Amino acid sequence: MIKNIGYIVFILLGAACSSEKDEYVPIDKNPKLEFSIPSNFPEPSYNVSLNPPTEKGFELGKKLFYDGRLSSDGVISCGFCHIQDFAFTHHTHIVSHGVNGALGTRNAQPLHNLAFMKEFTWDGAAIHLDLQPIIPITAEVEMNESFSSILQKLEEQPEYVTLFGEAFEDQKINSENLLKALSQFMIMMISSNSKYDRIERNEGSVFTSDEAVGFELFTSKCASCHAGTLFTDQSYRNNGLPVDPQYNDIGRNRVTGLVSDLYKFKVPTLRNIELTFPYMHDGRLKTLKDVLDHYSDGMIDSETLDPVFKKTDGTVAGIPMTEEEKQQIISFLKTLTDDNFVNDNRFSEF
Amino acid sequence: MNKFTLIILAIITIISCKDDDPNIVEIDNTPKFGTLNINFNNKVVGDLVTLNTGSYTNLSNETYTISELKYIISNIVLVKENGDEFTYPVANSYFLINEEVPSSKQVTLSNIDASIYTKIKFGVGVDQSNYPLNGVANFIPTAEESGMLWSWSAGYKFLKFEGSFTPQGGTTGDFLLHIGSHGEVLDNYKEVTLDLSSTLIIGDQTTSELSINADVSKIFDSTNTYSLEQKSDVQVDPVNAPILAENISTMFTTINEIPN
Fold this sequence. Notes:
The complex is a heterodimer. By secondary structure, chain A is mainly α. In chain A, 33% of the residues lie in helices and 1% in strands. In chain A, helix 2 packs antiparallel against helix 6, helix 2 packs across helix 7 and helix 9 crosses helix 12. Chain A is globular, with a radius of gyration of 24 Å. Chain A starts with a helix and ends in an 8-residue tail after the last helix. Chain B has 3 helices and 14 strands. Chains A and B meet through helix 1, helix 4, helix 5, helix 7 and helix 10 of A and helix 1 and helix 2 of B.
């Protein structure tokens, strides 16, 4: 009898409350994804608890990332300029390409370990990962699209209606959920399985002699800015590139308006640097050798040139390196390549 | 099934559907909520702004006309007589006031605690300090349609004030003042607290009205004196943007509320 009452109560409850708002999505339909911090990494800057990645949120974010509907011509997706094989950069393209063949002014940055970064883009114009996509989406020379138009296009796609409904409690297709889904996809993109990582975590790998010497040289000559296991101190610095009159890119000054920020750019992470050529904010340098040649011999002085590159008398010192040392540093830099990451199917379009 | 069982079933059924069942008589301690319309009147001193044709003079003897006037209001809080605060849901609290669009100048807040209020607090711009808890993402479409996003940055323009001006004895030129925060380096978001000139009563299921005057002449002449001749194009300007932001925060006053 007691058992039967249990069933009846259950049925009555169900029948009595079967109003429209009670379409519960069972929890196991959208399980949380594990966001695990590699043991050699710092704490993330992104507050994962406020937007915990879920299976459906990640799937939605990935679909959006590879969807040309986020651009005005229906072709340029995020993944158009951020190609996984090259650590999500635009292989061989000096500056970003946008709708209708438009050219940007800066080189597409790699996408990995974004949960650990405090600010985004070359000049820090986005102070939160959730905000970053606003820039490429709305920039005329990139995706040239408006959020209202994107949301309207997504509403018309049954798959998106379903996915947004499964991914978010309020089930709404709106900008907040769109940006959160993109972030869920992006924060899962952790690159932490390079040879360097395996050495740092004592997992049995060892440097070759060239790599070992290169690492020593790197530590003494480069690591004051390319610091820590993320290989960036996330500061903005002028590294002595001559100003290209074609762009006259004022760098961080565009965000802060401070004269002291003229021609400063974010110190980029060096993870996967072997794959992310060409280099510098405007992609002007083709190879790692070119980059090191710039640091040893190519810098020009200016008001905001970083003091780290100056001698005590104020003249430009650069980073003195012999040709052999450069090759050794490059050998070390190649240990930062993470093949697992660039081949990880979770992040692939197909 | 015995009586006892039936009674239990009946009770459970009723309890489980309490919210939906009109037959349940509730004791009258239910929260009461009203609606508030806030009307923003953009003025130059005492006169309502007339875009393009109205000619005004600031204290630096510059005559000016206004072609565009927009600003973002956010984080609205009403303060009760006893000091308790009613915080309007932050995510629904972002409004773009655009002089050109009459409907944008009336902001409707619903489900406000029925009570007597003596102060109103709000933000000018977007508080980015607690992003993403500030729920601003869904304001993006409104902001972008009105050109209140910087195209190259992920921030908002808090105020856009454009027109043309003629300095005394000088030649006419355009002015363009776009004030917002500069990344995390400079926060130009301002909070404004206004005493209500008489108490504001929000009744149960009634609509109350409140008017707020925005005297844009204060953008030039208030805490700081700002002449356009000194700089007429202010966008990301770490010197002049804070000066103007401070002035902007002083341009609001409340006037007579009409009791419902």
